[in-house]
Structure formats: structure tokens, C-alpha cells
Amino acid sequence: METEPIVRRLQLEQLYADYVHCLDADELERWPEFFIEDCFYRVTSAENYEAGLPLGLIYATSRNMLKDRVSALREANIYEPQRYRHLVSSLRVVGEAAAALDVEANLLVVRTMQDGGMTIFAAGRYIDRVVREREVWKFARKEVVLDSRQIDTLLAIPI
Amino acid sequence: MSRLTSEGGVDIADNGAHHASYTRNKIDRVGAAESDQLYAGIPSLRENFRLADPGFLSMIEEFGDDTTTQILSVFPNFVLQQIQNSIALRLVLPKGPDKTELQWVYLGFEEDTPELSALRLAQANLVGPAGYVSMEDGAVGNFIQRALPGAESESSVLEMGGFEHVSEPNRTTEASIRGFWHSYRPLMGF
What we know:
The complex is a heterodimer. Chain A is of the alpha+beta class. Chain A contains 3 helices and 6 strands; from the N terminus they run αβαβαββββ. Chain A has a single domain (4-146), classed as Nuclear Transport Factor 2, Chain: A. The termini of chain A are far apart. By secondary structure, chain B is of the alpha+beta class. Chain B has one domain (6-150, 159-188): Naphthalene 1,2-dioxygenase Alpha Subunit, Chain A, domain 1, CATH 3.90.380.10. Chain B has a 6-stranded antiparallel beta sheet. Chain B is globular, with a radius of gyration of 19 Å. The N and C termini of chain B lie far apart (40 Å). Classes of the chains: A alpha+beta, B alpha+beta.
């Protein structure tokens, strides 16, 4: 039996589990380390994505821009305390190039604010490209494509 | 990026309804040395805060007027923004007593160079729900909205610079928002 696809599958499942744990556990300083240095990250709407429009609500073209996001949240921006709970499912490898995999997964984020109020904050897809860097899967691209064209007035923590 | 000693101001329509506020960051009204001196006594929230990748804060001069930021507000619910190279239309749509939708249309142009397109996209990080500059604005508006029910008979006044709405050659003013309310209140019968 060919075990390599199974091993790869488990590695990818682990990558996404670690990624959302980092965000949900407020370990944001580790978040940029899930990406390669020359990465691309954006949060956008399905409407924009499907129209081929490049705009993002959060938009980064380097890992350093992701680090700046985190330092801004920690040092500069003032926002209401909150907690995310990511649920990721239906992970699929949809494309395979030389050293990269195109991976998609469903995502749901429940957000709980300091007063206890909870909302389904985001539903959508991760549309990603992962590559191996020193034996570890990292995101070369991550597009967070949200189903709704509306977003709450505050999007502080990345998705 | 921006100092209050930079050239800038607010132009307000006679009836107060519309205004344009603008900044020309490259031109300092008091000179660089005096601006440094004036700012030397003002504590920063965080000293020595630096970005790891500040490239997106550079700017390509598009209109030849040195304007780095311009917010044009047309009564009652339209805004045209130029923040560096990020150009957008904003439409404020009240949806009910507890909900307002803000629609954003960001503009790029067919003749934009790849470098200019990249700056426009990256500078969109500055505003919006995840905006470096505007995150607090959204959060504070939300706080106030939630605090209002149950306090309808209460009032508070925080006054900065009088009661009039006249154009001013500086941005240290609330005259533009006063102008908005001066037009809004008679229309609504308040």
C-alpha cells in the first residue's frame, strides 16, 4: 500500500490544526512563521475573488508585512478584547505542481467578545498554496475567501 | 507619515453640509526643525516602534498637487478618499436604528503601472475594518452605538474650537463635523 499520500494528508491536517490553534490561542507572534518569507496573504470576499478582483481587507505580500500586522495589534492598535474559534473542515488537495500543493478547506470562525456576545464572524474557504521548507509545510499563499460581502466593522485578529 | 504641522486644512461649504480635508505631508508649515522641536515634547504611545516592511507607505505622485491625503465628504452619505495612492468611494447606508452598512469601492485604473497597482492594494491596509489607521474608529463607533440605548435623555458636549463651521488652514478642528450637523438638524426637524 502506498503510504505517502496518507502521510502527506496527516501532515496537512496537522498544519491547519496548528495554524488555527495559533490564532485561537492568541499566539499571534508565531503566526508569520507558518508562511515562507516571500508569501502572499489576503482576506477577501467571494464576490471579489470570483470576479478576479485583487483587493484584500488584509493584504500582505511578505512575511514581514504579517509580522507588522502582529506588532500593530500588540503595540499600536486599540481594540475590544475578543477570542476566535476556528473550525476547519473538508480539506482537499486540488492541485499539485513540482514542489507545491494547492489546498482548499472550509472555515468557520465564531467570535466571542469580552461581554460574552458570540457571533458567527466568518464563513468561507482557505484557498492556499503550500510548499516544503526544511521538511515543514509552509504557506506560500493563503487567501481567506469569505462567503459574505459584509464584514463586521472590526477585523483585528487575522483569520 | 503625518504631522499636524504639515500643510493641510479643511474646506467647508457655506451651509456646512460638504467638506474636503486635506494634507500635504511633504510641506511643513513651520519647517522641519521647528516641527521636530514641537513634537519632541509629545510622548509617543510606543517609542521606537518600527515596521519590518514599510515599503507600502511610499507614495507615487499622481496629481501633481503634493496632496497625500484628501477626504471629500458630500452630504449626507458619500465620501471620496485619497489616502496616499489608495482611492476609494465610500457610501454610508443606514439600515436601521442599530445597523449601518458602509460600502467601499476601491479604484484602480487600466493605465496604472504594476508598481502603482501594488501600492494601491497594499495601502488599502490603512483603512477599513482591519485598517491600521481606522481600527479604533470602528471599535469606538461600535462602543458608542451600544451605549446609546437607555441613555436617550442624557447628553454630553465636548467642544473643540467653538460653534461655527468655517474653512481652516489646519486640521486641528472639528468644524467639518459641526457643519454636517448644522445641515442635518434642520432637515430632520431637530
